[in-house]
């Protein structure tokens, strides 16, 4: 790694799970996660749909930061997960819920 390259930072770990409603898997639920960037304006967003078993997965989200290269430490990134189905919000989570 060169001093002239930004540091790779993890904004959001990989996640997976099963969405249920009244104990039954939800096929076709929309899962969206939003990660705010602490060092610049903007955010990263990715989305997926649940399968026939209500299962979904999303990969880890990485970005690059010059600040993280020169200032060691652990950074906290505001992040939210939204689950909608049939036009209704089933679930929302943010870092304050954890």
Question: Mind explaining what this structure looks like?
Answer:
The structure is a single chain. With 98 residues, this protein is mainly β. It is built from 1 helix and 10 strands; from the N terminus they run ββββββββαββ. It has one helix at 66-70; strands at 7-12, 15-18, 20-21, 24-25, 30-36, 43-49, 55-58, 61-65, 79-85, 88-94. The strands form 4 sheets. The chain has a 4-stranded antiparallel β-sheet, with no helix packed on it. It has a two-stranded antiparallel sheet with strand order 1-8. A two-stranded antiparallel ribbon has the order 2-7. Strand 3 and strand 4 form a beta hairpin. It is elongated, with a radius of gyration of 16 Å. The mean pLDDT is 81.
Question: What would a concise description of this structure say?
Answer:
The protein is mainly beta and 98 residues long. The chain has one helix at 66-70; strands at residues 7-12, 15-18, 20-21, 24-25, 30-36, 43-49, 55-58, 61-65, 79-85, 88-94.
The helical percent reads under 10%
What amount of the residues lies in strands? over 45%
Radius of gyration: 16 Å
Flag low-confidence runs.
none
Mean pLDDT: 81
Number of helices: 1
Spatial strand order of the main sheet: 6-5-9-10
Order of helices and strands: EEEEEEEEHEE
Category from helices, strands and their pairing: mainly beta
User: Gap between N and C termini, in Å?
Assistant: 34 Å
Annotation, overall tally of beta strands: 10
Keyword list:
4-stranded antiparallel beta sheet, 98 residues, mainly beta, 1 helix
